[in-house]
Amino acid sequence: MAANENRRDQKNTRFVPLLRIAFRWSMTRRKTAHQTGLRFAAIGIAAGIVALIVVMSVMNGFQRQYIDSLLETTSFHIRIKAENSHVPALSQSLRQNPLVRSVTPFVETNLLAEGPENHQSVLRLMWVGPQDLASDAGFCRALHLSPALAEEGLESGILLGSEAARLLGAYEGIKITMRGALVSPDEGIQQYETDAPVSRLFRSGYYELDAGLAIVSREKIANLSLAPAPTVLGVKLKNPEQADALVAALSHEEGIESIESWRDYNRSFFSALRTEKIVMFLLVSIIFAVVAINIHYSMRRTIARKARDLAILSAFGTSQRSISTIFMFEGLIVGIVGAALGIVVGIPIAQNVDRIINGAIALLDGIMSLLYRMGIAKSIPDLRLFSPTVFYTEGIPSRIFTSDISLIAAFAVIFPAIAVYLAYRRFRNASPLEVLRSE
After folding, report:
1. Do the beta carbons of residue 87 and residue 268 sit within 8 Å?
2. Cα separation of 233 and 316, whole Å?
3. Which band of pLDDT confidence, cut at 50, 70 and 90, is reported for residue 1?
């Protein structure tokens, strides 16, 4: 054991001077072309990290907002199709489960809606009980309605998306007609028709939901000769990551016809998001590759200039491994300094990206207003990044994940180290005697 500790101490004693030499060559105040190049390389790495953090956090923000809204409204964490006779008992059992946040029985179908001026649009209709909707606070919050208003709206009429209302030419108090089809075992395909006044308009913030979703009280199914679709139990968990475990536990329950988690239900959508994120990460990571190439050629020139010094070190007994360690430390120092600087700058920018952009737009708007008053500009353009006339969003969301930052920092440290190692590999086999003789 003492021998192992002595070896460890010898390694530390050998690495500390090499680390000091690497730091002196790369980050000291002495102005040389080599140090200037490495400092610019560190700044380039920092710029790449800032760009990656901001881009990935904004992408995560948009994706998570849409995913959260999707899970709270039409997807749920777990969707269970059960026999109608087992729905009440199964709902009660799930509500008593400590993992479950809410259980919402509903029926969903697609139908054709017609407004007061014969404007038509296809809607995804959810038949939900007023009390069930009010008990699901997440659903109401996603629709920007309080539970009391949602329950009151369902009892008196239909909850309709704001964009769907615009397409149908409808507004609160106006009755719309909905026509659909259902399959009867005895009579085959039958058409049905129901109407209801628009009691509340909701705006979730996502066009697909606001243009294609309507919610009607489940009690209206009693007016039909047959239910338009099977009853589905929409289950939401306190922790969505536990959905697969609960699905496995419920898969053998009596009365359940099918059960799927939110990952299975939205498989294609989440696969597309994952692919988009990977491609974006690879594209922006090209910054690191460019910086690594610059470091590589800068180190090759530096090693060529220092060939005499390195040969003298070799002649005095310094091993090639120690010299290569110096350059490896140098590459790691550049990567670590660039990564630390990029993270320190990038995280605050990512957290306040919406404020920064709005502040810049406000400044430009003030300048354009001044030029307009002076008669230099003929008009004041709409400088908003997300103008309501074009985009269906009000701001730039941002969400930072520690895993993304860790991966970005790892790339920033590894790329320079590899570049320096490849640059030194050409000198490693050079003979000190030949180098000194040529000098």
Report:
1. no
2. 79
3. very low
In the block, tokens 């810049």 appear at 360
d(CA 352, CA 397) in angstroms, rounded, equals 9
Helices 320-351 & 33-70, crossing angle to 10 degrees? 40
Q: What is the 3-state secondary structure (H, E, C) of the chain?
A: CHHHHHHHHHHHHHHHHHHHHHHHHHHCCCCCHHHHHHHHHHHHHHHHHHHHHHHHHHHHHHHHHHHHHHHHHHHCCEEEEECHHHHHHHHHHHHCCCCEEEEEEEEEEEEEEECCCCCEEEEEEEEECHHHHHHCHHHHHHCCCCHHHHHHHHHHCEEEEHHHHHHHCCCCCCEEEEEEEEEECCCEEEEEEEEEEEEEEECCCCHHHHHHEEEEEHHHHHHCCCCCCCCEEEEEECCHHHHHHHHHHHCCCCCEEEEEEHHHHCHHHHHHHHHHHHHHHHHHCHHHHHHHHHHHHHHHHHHHHCHHHHHHHHHCCCCHHHHHHHHHHHHHHHHHHHHHHHHHHHHHHHHCHHHHHHHHHHHHHHHHHHHHHCCCCCCCCCCCCCCCCCCCCCCCCCCCCHHHHHHHHHHHHHHHHHHHHHHHHHHHCCCHHHHHHHC
Q: Residue 215: its pLDDT value, please? A: 92
Q: Is residue 36 pLDDT above 70, yes or no?
A: no
Token pair for 111: 């139908």
Q: Comparing C-alpha atoms, which of 237, 214, 291 is closest to residue 52?
A: 291
* Cross-strand partners of 303: none
Tell me phi and psi for residue 14, to 5 degrees. -80, -35
Q: 174 or 207: which carries more pLDDT confidence?
A: 174
DSSP 261-302: EHHHHTHHHHHHHHHHHHHHHHHHTHHHHHHHHHHHHHHHHH
- The residue extents of the domains of the chain are 9-63+273-438, 100-237
- Global pTM value: 0.68
Distance CA 184, CA 321 (A): 81
Give the type of residue at 340. Answer: A
127 alpha-carbon distance from chain centroid: 31
Can you tell me whether residue 389 is helix, strand or coil?
coil
User: Is residue 169 over pLDDT 80?
Assistant: yes
CA atoms of 334 and 49, how far apart (whole Å)? 13
**CB-CB contact of 275 with 132 (8 Å):** no
Residue 195 has pLDDT above 50, yes or no: yes
